[in-house]
Amino acid sequence: MGLMIYLDGKFVDEEEAKVSVFDHGVLYGDGIFEGIRAYHGQVFKLKEHIERLYQGAQTILLDINETPDEMVRVVTETCRRNNLSDAYIRLVVTRGKGDLGLDPRKCPKSTTFCIASSITLYPEELYTNGLALATVATRRNIAEACNPRVKSLNYLNNIYAKIEANLADVGEGILLNNEGYVAEATGDNIFIVRKGVLITPPIYVGLLEGVTRNCVMELARKRGIEVKETLFTRMDMYTADECFLTGTAAEVIPAVKYDGRVIGTGKPGEITKTLIQDYRDYVKNAGDGAEI
Ligand code: PMP
Fold first, then answer.
1. Which is the catalytic residue, given 45, 97, 151, 162?
2. Binding pocket residue ranges, ligand 1, CB within 6 Å
3. pLDDT tens digits, one per residue of 228-269
């Protein structure tokens, strides 16, 4: 037996977990999702992920069949059914089955599924030595066209960027917004450190408001580190003392090179190392997640 998948009110074996070819999630990328982690029997920041999911649904006028409270139970129960206390969880809500036109009014019922699987961790070597980054030519979607704040199934913008990063043979690609300000990486938020101040781009630059981003800002403030949400450019990255990315899967990961320029000393900086450890300690002892 494979994984047990939650699909529209039932738990089914992964072999039977199928969505229709007429589902607008498949035909148009019309839907939303969350990537969530469980640590030591607790689903980390589940409330925040569910909140972001329902805010996305509200924005794209998507009716989710489950209430937020039911969705909490969907996620915890999916972990339980698969005997997972540490997991990577993918929660997806699509527009559901419709006709071949793109009109969502033709999709009477959305589709919800949840996958809980074991997590493939990034090699520890990347946390000790740091990633190389490069700016990609693809610009981040403008908010007025396809708002990056909505974690939609329409990830082609990010995939273009990932392809460019792969071709450039770097660990991650950095997307600028249409004005040339640094927005985020393909699947992670970005931070720099300048003269002891932690800086990350503001949400309005056009980015996904990461759960990890918000948590790391809080951890830094708790340490007395000044945190600013300010616009910055490629040059600010070239001349930064430190740089790192944040995301549910990667957690806090240092970056030491950007567009061929060495950042700071070329090694993960002191504030970065502190926050990597603080975040690891926090996820272990958070106690504010949802019990599996
Ligand atoms: N930006 C993008 C584009 C992402 O896909 C992700 C991953 N969900 C993030 C940032 C980081 O968000 P989080 O910390 O909530 O995982």
1. 151
2. 35, 158, 184, 187-189, 208, 210-213, 246-248
3. 999 999 999 999 999 999 999 999 999 999 999 999 999 999
CATH superfamily of 124-285: D-amino Acid Aminotransferase, subunit A, domain 2 (3.20.10.10)
pTM, to two decimals:
0.98
Give catalytic status of residue 228 as yes or no: no
Supply the residue whose CA is at minimum distance from atom 9 of ligand 1.
188
Q: To test ligand 1's pocket by mutation, which of 208, 215, 216, 253 has the most ligand atoms within 8 angstroms of CB?
A: 208
Domain spans of the chain, in order of start: 4-117, 124-285
Q: Is 116 a residue whose pLDDT tops 80?
A: yes
| CATH of span 4-117 | 3.30.470.10
Q: How far is the CA of 1 from the centre of ligand 1 (A)?
A: 31
Identify the pLDDT of residue 285. 86
Centroid of ligand 1 to alpha carbon of 213 (angstroms): 8
Asked if 133 and 185 touch (Cβ cutoff 8 Å), the reply is yes
Query: Facing residues of 13 across strands?
Result: 4
